[in-house]
Amino acid sequence: MLENAPPLLRNFWYLALPGKDLPRGDTANLTLLGEPVLICRGDDGAVFALRDICPHRGIPLSYGSFDGAEVACCYHGWRFGADGRCREIPSLTPGQEMDVSRIRCGAYPCREVQGNIWVYLPEKSARLPQADIEDLPAPPELPNFGDSAPQVSISQVFDCSADTAAFGLMDPTHAAFVHTSWWWKKNATKLRLKEKHFEPAPLGWRMKRHALPPQNRVYHVLGKGVTTEITYSLPGLRVELIDGDKHRAAGLTAITPINDSRTVVHQALYWTLPWTAPLKPLARYLANVFLTQDRRVVDMQQEGLAHNPSLMLIDDADTQAKWFYRLKREWLRAAEEGRPFENPIKECTLRWRS
Ligand code: FES
Ligand SMILES: [Fe+2]
């Protein structure tokens, strides 16, 4: 039986948006875990994130303007820098001495890694001291891709909780039924027995590296002996690494809650094959087809969930969803008890037909 979803996880980096969607001198206002966030890219190319609420009278700063270095509020023109501190209050007259830098709108740790902009969401309304910001773990990074940006990235908003979206990521038996199409797989008649080996990974688990089945011909472009491993981790990340003897590819899927009932699913695809620019529109199209199928099934599911039914997780098809819940519970409990997180996942083999 499924329990009520635990709260949205804090003290994690969340993928806010692909870096290519934010040009220099531009801003993007988003809601992350229910909080209004204004992400800015300065004229120098660096990104920063502010709480999108003016501390003077509460109007969102995103209604104001950005000159490539500072954000000016649209109401009375107070200006804020990348550190979230006030730089200027235009109404002050000579003699009205006041240390405006003590006024803050609040800033979130924000970093761009491999072409994605990540924002760190601390405990609610906590203001991280500068030293703690410097000590934060780095945002997630794909191994062996240096600082390359994704070849293709797509994002879709799902009208569901982050847990429901995350379950879709780690659900190995829906694909045969949901991801069908006339040109790909017409129906679910040919289910095959799958047996995969799993091991614990930092803040999650990993489907151990294994050879791709020979029917996946598209991966032959990566060379011979193509293998893959898939890692799932909190707060809702899936990283698939596919390596051949000539080239490699990777997929990063990141679940970012807008609030308790809306979630963005980001997908970024990386590969090292050269001369593939003409194929990118096709890859983007296909990625969107698959993600739209996932989103549509979630939309239909919401009709049933609106009646608050009790739900089931079965072995072994839903074992990974059970692990996800266990990890979340352990993360919350460890934080509550002020002790290090202990990964509850043990090495094992799971079997299902899909
Ligand atoms: S409300 Fe922002 S400057 Fe007054
Ligand atoms: Fe799916």
So what's the overall shape?
Answer: globular
Number of helices: 5
Tally of individual domains: 2
**Gyration radius from CA atoms, angstroms:** 22 Å
Q: Work out the number of β strands.
A: 19
CATH topology term of the largest domain? Naphthalene 1,2-dioxygenase Alpha Subunit, Chain A, domain 1
Structural class: alpha+beta
CATH superfamily of the largest domain: Naphthalene 1,2-dioxygenase Alpha Subunit, Chain A, domain 1
Q: What percentage of amino acids are in beta strands?
A: 25-35%
Could you list the spans in which at least 5 consecutive residues all have pLDDT below 50? Answer: none
Q: Distance between termini? A: 23 Å
Helix content: 10-25%
Reported CATH architecture of the largest domain: Alpha-Beta Complex
Name of the CATH class of the largest domain: Alpha Beta
User: What ligand molecules are bound, each kind once?
Assistant: FE2/S2 (inorganic) cluster, fe (ii) ion
Give the strand order, joined by hyphens, for the main sheet: 12-18-17-16-15-14-13-19
